[in-house]
From TrEMBL:
Pfam families: DJ-1_PfpI, HTH_18. It comes from Brevibacterium aurantiacum. InterPro entries: Class_I_gatase-like (IPR029062), DJ-1/PfpI (IPR002818), Homeodomain-like_sf (IPR009057), HTH_AraC (IPR018060), HTH_AraC-typ_CS (IPR018062), INH-QAR (IPR052158). Residues 212-310 form the HTH araC/xylS-type domain. Keywords: DNA-binding, Transcription, Transcription regulation. PANTHER family: ARAC-FAMILY TRANSCRIPTIONAL REGULATOR (PTHR43130), HTH-TYPE TRANSCRIPTIONAL REGULATOR RV1931C (PTHR43130:SF3). The keyword DNA-binding applies. The keyword Hydrolase does not apply. Residues 307-333 are annotated as: Disordered. This is Helix-turn-helix domain-containing protein. GO terms for molecular function: DNA-binding transcription factor activity; sequence-specific DNA binding.
Length: 333
């Protein structure tokens, strides 16, 4: 898979490096033959925000034919995207490429009309400006990334890592994403539903944080009933205090967090084991295959059986990868 990354004078080295680090690690780990290319409005050198000059950047023609186009950031002043970039994004999208706007990179994606009537996220400092420019766009301040399959946007700065790992996960599976995360020594999965900023200090020691202990405990007991009362008991808190503290720590309710962990484990089992779907439903705490299917379809717009079929063909030495997620509206029987 070829991934084209847009570079411009004034971009920070961090924003420019994140998609290259994550996607190139896929190839370095031998998971799939992914390659990245930097392109800009022309072939002139660009100067980063830190003052480094980067030469050898390709012109816009290098982006055409890529399966993924990434705009990893944008100008601090939020200026409107130029017509050539907007046209490139629209043409690539119409051709079937996935478009990713990371951090302030949401701005040119919206300028190209690819987010009209959709939810999106960007760095919290850009909320007001983006909303004023695109009033038909719904900005969600409670998530790290939003993926529509054809377009993905992410919150500020380090959330780009989460979005890029999510793209690896949806295309190559949880094990591949975990392998990349381990190699880069980053968290393998921060949920897209996690708030992008938390207005409370993190605990000085993770071991002293009751919520951290509950999260670890719950992951080891997904096959059991996990009502909020039981989780609060493990945390040695009242239910009301636990719910409030849990949401402040994770940006999610206990029920939604547990549901997503069950779905994560179900995906891993579908990708890597031959267990029956009925057994996976039990092991992941859904109780019945009907409940698993309902939750799976609501979250991923496909069925467990169809999802498993996507991962029966593993990446080969030629770099072929499984097909992407089933589009919305597919048969969910």
């Amino acid at each position: 898979m070829r991934i084209a990354i847009y570079a411009f004078t004034g971009i920070t080295m961090f924003h420019l490096s994140v998609p290259q680090m994550v996607f190139n690690e896929v190839a370095r780990q031998g998971l799939a033959a992914w390659e990245t290319v930097l392109f800009s409005d022309d072939v002139a050198p660009i100067t980063t925000a830190e003052g480094y000059q980067i030469t050898g950047v390709s012109g816009p023609d290098a982006a055409y034919g890529s399966e993924v186009i990434v705009v990893p950031s944008w100008y601090d002043d939020g200026r409107p995207a130029g017509q050539p970039l907007r046209q490139l994004l629209v043409d690539s999208h119409h051709r079937g490429a996935s478009i990713a706007g990371l951090c302030l990179g949401t701005f040119p994606i919206a300028d190209a009309g690819l987010l009209a009537g959709r939810r999106a996220v960007t760095h919290w400092q850009g909320f007001d400006q983006l909303t004023a420019r695109h009033p038909d766009l719904e900005i969600d301040d409670s998530v790290l990334y939003i993926d529509y399959g054809d377009v993905i946007t992410s919150a500020g700065t380090a959330s780009a890592l989460d979005a890029c790992l999510h793209m690896v996960r949806t295309r190559l599976g949880a094990d591949a994403a975990n392998q990349v995360a381990r190699s880069l020594v980053i968290a393998p999965h921060r949920d897209g539903g996690q708030a992008q900023y938390i207005q409370r200090p993190l605990p000085e020691h993770a071991d002293d944080d009751p919520i951290s202990r509950v999260l670890d405990w719950a992951v080891d007991h997904l096959d059991e009933s996990l009502p909020v009362e039981r989780l609060a008991e493990v945390a040695h808190m009242s239910v009301r205090t636990f719910i409030r503290t849990f949401r402040a720590s994770t940006g999610a309710t206990p029920a939604s967090w547990v549901r997503m962990r069950r779905l994560d484990e179900a995906r891993r089992a579908l990708e890597t084991t031959s267990l029956s779907i009925d057994q996976i439903a039990v092991n992941c705490g859904f109780g019945s295959v009907v409940t698993l299917r309902q939750n799976f379809a609501a979250a991923f717009k496909t069925t467990p059986s169809e999802y498993r079929r996507q991962f029966e063909a593993r990446p080969t030495s030629t770099g072929q990868t499984p097909a992407g997620p089933t589009p919305a509206g597919a048969d969910l029987s």
